[in-house]
Amino acid sequence: MSHTRRTSGRAGWPGVLIVASVLALGLVGVALAGVTHRAVQANVTVTITDNRLDVSHGVVQAGQATFVVANKGRKPHVLGISGPGLRSGRTQLVQAGKTAKLTVTLRSGAYMLIDTRRSPTTVRWVMVGPATASAGSTRTVTPFPAPAPMDCD
């Protein structure tokens, strides 16, 4: 005696759950496709002493960036920035114990940061990558790996 199982054309609960999940994910994907990603303005902290220049992070995304310069030394200092598309970015004279802000628009590439009042000059580098990458109809923010130390004294 053989037993055969009859199906009535219904998918059953596991099939219904799979179909419902696929449809829900599809709706979420359609909803997210219409979302516009705004580039987040980068804040880079630069600490200057009378014999050092330190940068909070050496990798940012292209677009507007604000450099917050804190003078922890005893002498006045000026931060200078140069790189792709930036002719002369520099702060005003930052007195000892004071801070200054410099907002610039960065393109992809390498930017050199220097203390223009210090001799010999200390150089630090900030790498700038593209703000977004697109693949088809979606846009995602490009993650960057942790920066390697790039000190040039």
Short characterization:
The chain is mainly β and 153 residues long.
Gross CATH architecture of the domain at 42-147: Sandwich
**Strand residue content:** 35-45%
What would the principal axes of the Cα set say about the shape? globular
Distance between termini? 89 Å
Largest sheet report: 6 strands, mixed
H/I helix tally: 1
Helix content range of the residues, please?
Answer: 10-25%
What's the CATH superfamily of the domain at 42-147, by name? Cupredoxins -  blue copper proteins
The run of helices and strands is: HEEEEEEEEEEEE
CATH topology of the domain at 42-147: the name is: Immunoglobulin-like
What structural class do helix, strand and pairing data support?
Answer: mainly beta
Mean of residue pLDDT values: 74
Low-confidence stretches: 20-39, 142-149
Rg measurement, Å: 27 Å
Describe the structure.
- By secondary structure, the chain is mostly beta strands.
- It has a domain at 42-147: Cupredoxins -  blue copper proteins (Immunoglobulin-like).
- It is built from 1 helix and 12 strands.
- It has one helix at residues 12-33; strands at residues 42-48, 53-55, 59-61, 63-71, 79-83, 86-90, 99-106, 109-115, 123-129, 132-135, 138-141, 151-152.
- The strands form 3 sheets. Strands 3, 5, 6, 8, 9 and 12 form a 6-stranded mixed beta sheet that branches. A 4-stranded mixed beta sheet has the order 2-1-4-7, with no helix packed on it.
- It is globular and about 75 Å long.
- The N and C termini lie far apart (89 Å).
- The model is unreliable at 20-39 and 142-149 (pLDDT under 50).
